[in-house]
Automatic annotation (TrEMBL), chain A:
<comment type="similarity">
    <text>Belongs to the thiolase-like superfamily. Beta-ketoacyl-ACP synthases family.</text>
</comment>
<dbReference type="Pfam" id="PF00109">
    <property type="entry name" value="ketoacyl-synt"/>
</dbReference>
<feature type="domain" description="Ketosynthase family 3 (KS3)">
    <location>
        <begin position="2"/>
        <end position="401"/>
    </location>
</feature>
<dbReference type="InterPro" id="IPR014031">
    <property type="entry name" value="Ketoacyl_synth_C"/>
</dbReference>
<dbReference type="InterPro" id="IPR000794">
    <property type="entry name" value="Beta-ketoacyl_synthase"/>
</dbReference>
<dbReference type="InterPro" id="IPR020841">
    <property type="entry name" value="PKS_Beta-ketoAc_synthase_dom"/>
</dbReference>
<dbReference type="Pfam" id="PF02801">
    <property type="entry name" value="Ketoacyl-synt_C"/>
</dbReference>
<protein>
    <submittedName>
        <fullName>Actinorhodin polyketide beta-ketoacyl synthase beta subunit</fullName>
    </submittedName>
</protein>
<keyword id="KW-0808">Transferase</keyword>
TrEMBL record, chain B:
<feature type="domain" description="Carrier">
    <location>
        <begin position="4"/>
        <end position="82"/>
    </location>
</feature>
<dbReference type="InterPro" id="IPR036736">
    <property type="entry name" value="ACP-like_sf"/>
</dbReference>
<dbReference type="InterPro" id="IPR009081">
    <property type="entry name" value="PP-bd_ACP"/>
</dbReference>
<protein>
    <submittedName>
        <fullName>Oxytetracycline polyketide synthase acyl carrier</fullName>
    </submittedName>
</protein>
<dbReference type="Pfam" id="PF00550">
    <property type="entry name" value="PP-binding"/>
</dbReference>
Length: 403, 86
């Protein structure tokens, strides 16, 4: 029998809450963390709103040795991993290093660090560039730093597929569990809210230029006009179910299904491959659409992409056939951290029998979605998380109660 | 031009550009302790020597990195270079 992969620990750093408890309380309460950028002066830019993680002081959580060599998002990731491990009751120094993998996703690496060092290079010269630039801005840096900090030497990886990456990382971690690695730290914590990173976000043409935080990010609304970028995400301790049960671990749920697909080349007339990612993930989990209690949507808030997502969901579940939600309306879209944060919300929804809301959006009737616009009670056993990445990536994960 | 590069100067640069390992007390007798034992890998030493080069306007070359395995050895190299520049 194929080993089953279960989540035994959750760590969260999100714009509407530092730590799982704060994030979940804010989310159920409908409290948004979106506001005007403070990490740099956004005055000269067309878009000025973002989701920044509040109250994070790196030196309160990390040794001074790590500070000169890490980007802000890596510091968030290291602390998020610490919290996930503590939540799981796992002490890495008591385990064999080769029994632990790290698989994270990233969309831009340590962009803020890289920006600072490139400024030093071009304004002062190569002698002024930090030696740590050699790895601090890499896509793989979070995987590497989490691995070093916790002595995790099992098969590890970094996945780069924009917003879909967080699910691809979880899928890859599950693969390692099935191949026999007992434990993996996986998910994604991302962020590039620096001026250079901001320009890169703007180049997508999908960023909301609204100035009212309550009107800026409105997926599935007739007024949708792009999204708000954010930082943060979630990391998990994923374990082989038999091993987790043997040590008496508390289990949040099972990563029951995963699939990823790639869109056809533009101009071929063939449909987007999102629906196929959803059906493949459901098949992989051995569930039918009727088993799914809630869908966590990708929710780009770009009309054409919202339409494609609504169509894919309706083709699988039927019009208004399943509750759909986007708690990321309270955080902005976190790139590689976005879908892992949705997986965290899905696991907590299962634990607490509650559906977190989509805030501010007034559902456009044409999409025929049952959008969860207020916190809704009800048993949750099975949740689907959907994510798409710029350039054609589609991924889906099915999370199920392990009870 | 500073006359002499002291252990205090080195400690302050180490703290600033590489941090301080939790299990190590830089204020104890460290002159002859290997950098590796103090928790500094080659990249930390690379970062430290380039900071010294910038602040003191000297060039240490790759030899400094290869030969200076302890604070005392690095101090000697830096001070010899400061003398030859002076």
């Amino acid at each position: 029998m194929t080993p089953s992969a279960v989540v035994t620990g959750i760590g969260v750093t999100a714009p509407n809450g530092l730590g799982t408890k704060d994030y979940w309380a804010a989310t159920l309460d409908g409290t948004s963390g979106i506001g005007r950028l403070t990490r740099f002066d956004p005055s000269g830019y067309p878009a000025q709103l973002a989701g920044e993680v509040p109250g994070f002081v790196a030196k309160e959580h990390l040794p001074s040795r790590l500070l000169p060599q890490t980007d802000h998002m890596t510091r968030l990731a290291l602390v998020t991993a610490d919290w996930a491990l503590a939540d799981a009751g796992v002490k890495p120094d008591q385990l064999d290093g080769y029994d632990m993998s790290v698989v994270t996703a990233s969309s831009a690496g340590g962009f803020e660090f890289g920006e600072r060092e490139l400024q030093a290079l071009w304004s002062k010269g190569s002698k002024y560039v930090s030696a740590y630039q050699s790895f601090a801005w890499f896509y793989a840096v979070n995987t590497g730093q989490i691995s070093i900090r916790n002595g995790m030497q099992g098969p590890s990886a970094a996945l780069v597929s924009d917003h879909a990456g967080g699910l691809d990382a979880i899928g890859q971690a599950r693969r390692q569990i099935r191949k026999g690695t007992p434990l993996a730290v996986t998910g994604g914590v991302d962020g590039s809210l620096s001026s250079y990173g901001w320009i890169s976000h703007l180049s997508s043409g999908q960023i909301s230029t609204a100035t009212d935080p309550d009107r800026a990010y409105l997926p599935f609304d007739a007024s949708a006009s792009g999204y708000v970028p954010g930082e943060g995400g979630a990391l998990f301790v994923l374990e082989d179910e038999a091993a987790a049960r043997q040590r008496g671990a508390e289990i949040y749920g099972r990563i029951a299904g995963y699939a990823s697909t790639f869109d056809p080349r533009p101009g071929t007339g063939r449909p987007p491959a999102l629906k196929r990612a959803i059906t493949l993930a459901l098949d992989d989990a051995g569930v039918t659409p009727g088993d799914v209690d809630v869908v966590f949507a990708d929710a780009v808030a770009v009309p054409e992409l919202d339409r494609q997502e609504a169509d894919a969901i309706n083709e699988v579940f039927g019009p208004r056939g399943v509750p759909v939600t986007a708690p990321k309306t309270m955080t902005g879209r976190l790139y590689a951290g976005a879908a892992p944060l949705d997986v965290a919300a899905a696991l907590l929804a299962i634990r607490d029998s509650v559906l977190p809301p989509t805030v501010h959006s007034d559902p456009y009737p044409d999409y025929q979605l049952d959008l969860v616009t207020g916190t809704r009670g009800g048993p949750v056993r099975t949740a689907l998380v959907v994510a798409r990445g710029h350039g054609g990536f589609n991924s889906a994960v099915v999370v199920r109660s392990a009870r | 031009m500073p006359e002499k590069f002291t252990i205090e100067d080195l400690k302050s640069i180490l703290r600033e550009c590489a941090g301080e390992d939790e299990g190590v007390d830089l204020d104890s007798h460290i002159l002859d302790t290997e950098f590796e034992e103090l928790g500094y890998e080659s990249l930390a030493i690379f970062e430290t020597t380039s900071r010294i080069e910038r602040e003191y306007g000297i060039s240490l070359g790759d030899d400094a990195l290869n030969e200076a395995s302890t604070p005392r050895a690095l101090l000697d190299i830096v001070n010899a270079r400061l003398l030859s520049v002076a």
